[in-house]
Amino acid sequence: MAADPYAIDAAFYDAIHGDGGDDLDFWLPLGAEHGSPVLEVGAGTGRIALPLARAGHAVTALDPSPAMLAIARQRAGAEGLAVSFVEGRLPGAVLPPAAFATIILPNDVFLACASGDEQAAALRAAATALAPGGRLALDVAGPGHWLDPDGNGEPILAWSGAVGGERLEVWHVRHDDLATQTRRLRIRYEVTAADGQVRYVQSEHVLRYVTLPELTSMLDAAGLRVLDTWGDYLLGALTNASERLIVTAELVEGAPGRRVAT
């Protein structure tokens, strides 16, 4: 694979996100309802995959970052959790066909696909990996948290706190392009040591945003029928002010997406 796209972020991910998150109250019941095996796409350091494994699920954690997966493996090993880790991404990863009862793409993972064509290919690949009657769920930015070019170039303090005796500030600078539905996000990590010395590291990522009609069309083309849409992790209605867009879909019997090995 290419150079690790999240090597810098991996060092700070757990300090920022911790072991919890509001979305766990969505993903854990969903896993309980739809069953195992579960594939998490973009599993990172295991924030969701490990709780699913603790709940008794057979979990495969897919991620393109060796640095992220190294942390997840260490955490799983320390708890004796039998999680299967796969380095890769959708589309592109080699996954067993018709193997998973549940596939989840949480927390903007789907937006890491660089184009609409790549997003559609990722959903076709997911459909191929779903077992008969399997369910897919994904969580992306909602209408109330969409692209906003008016804020381009403005530094935003996204997180701050103490980490191991040092002070960490995480700054986001974005460039949103409505024409391509993309956000170029620069993340700057500023670490202040106890003696006042400051060091900086920076990562950059491109996210490709989607609307519900576009997403529904992609899912349908992959042979996935939309079941529900929500605007938050408490299953609130999707509105213009919703910061999240959460969609669940099921594999349609004989779906063409199952025949596409992308």
Provide structural commentary.
With 262 residues, this protein is α/β, with parallel strands linked by helices. It contains 6 helices and 11 strands. It has helices spanning 7-17, 24-34, 49-54, 66-79, 116-129, 212-221; strands spanning 38-41, 59-63, 84-87, 100-105, 130-141, 156-163, 166-177, 182-192, 198-208, 224-230, 244-251. Strand 2, helix 4 and strand 3 form a beta-alpha-beta unit. Helix 1 crosses helix 4 (66-79). The two termini are 17 Å apart. 36% of the residues are buried. Residues 257-262 have low confidence and may be disordered.
Which geometry do the CA atoms define?
A: globular
- Please work out how many helical segments DSSP would assign: 6
Structural category is alpha/beta
Q: How much of the residues is beta strand, in percent?
A: 25-35%
The chain-level mean pLDDT equals 93
The major pleated sheet works out as: 7 strands, mixed
List unreliable stretches of 5+ residues: 257-262
- Helix proportion: 25-40%
Q: SSE order in H/E notation? A: HHEHEHEEHEEEEEHEE
Extended strand count? 11
User: Strand sequence of the main sheet, in spatial order?
Assistant: 3-2-1-4-5-11-10
- C-alpha termini separation: 17 Å
The rounded Rg comes to 18 Å
